[in-house]
Amino acid sequence: MNRAGPLPRVLSVGELARRSGVSVSALHFWEREGLIHGWRSAGNQRRYERATLRRVAIIKVAQAVGIPLAEVKARLEAAPAGKKGWATLAEAWRADLDRRIALLTRLRDRLDGCIGCGCLSVDDCPLRNPEDRVAQEGAGARYLIG
C-alpha cells in the first residue's frame, strides 16, 4: 500500500524496510555493525532518520557488487554529515570504483583467454607467453592485474 503525501522525517524499522526493500533483520544487523544508526522511541520502538534510506541504498548496491561491509562502513564514517557528505563520499570513492570497474571489465573481456596466471599460458598461448616467461614476474593473474 502506497502512502499519499511526503515521506515522514522519521521512519519506523518496518517503514524503512518497506521503503528500502531490505529485511528488518538486515537493518538490525547493519545497525549492530554500525552501518546505520537509529534510536528508540518513548515506546521502545526503533526509529531512523529519513536520510537512512540513502545509506541503505548505498549499502545494498555496494554489497551487490562485492564491496565488503567493512569498507562501506569506513567510507560512510569518513563522510561528513549532511548533503555535503554525500558529495564528499562520491568524490572520495570515485577513483576506487573506477579502478574496480576497469578490473572487472578486463576480467570479463579476458576470462576465456590467457590472463597470465600460468594455467593456460604454456599449452594454449605459446605466442603471448612462450615457455611461461610471465611466471618469472610472480604468481597470479599478471596480465589482468598488471
Question: Can you give a write-up of this model?
Answer:
The protein is mainly alpha-helical. It has a domain at 7-78: Orthogonal Bundle (Multidrug-efflux Transporter Regulator, Chain: A, Domain 2), CATH 1.10.1660.10. The chain contains 7 helices and 3 strands. A hairpin with a 5-residue loop joins strand 2 (39-40) and strand 3.
Annotation keywords:
elongated; 146 residues; Multidrug-efflux Transporter Regulator, Chain: A, Domain 2; mainly alpha; 3-stranded antiparallel sheet; 3 strands
Cross-sheet strand order for the largest sheet: 1-3-2
CATH class of the domain at 7-78: Mainly Alpha
Tell the overall outline: elongated
CATH structural architecture of the domain at 7-78: Orthogonal Bundle
Distance between the termini: 52 Å
For the sheet with most strands, the description reads: 3 strands, antiparallel
H and E order: EHHEEHHHHH
Q: Which regions contain 5 or more consecutive residues with pLDDT less than 50?
A: none
CA-based gyration radius: 22 Å
CATH topology of the domain at 7-78: Multidrug-efflux Transporter Regulator, Chain: A, Domain 2
Strand content: 5-15%
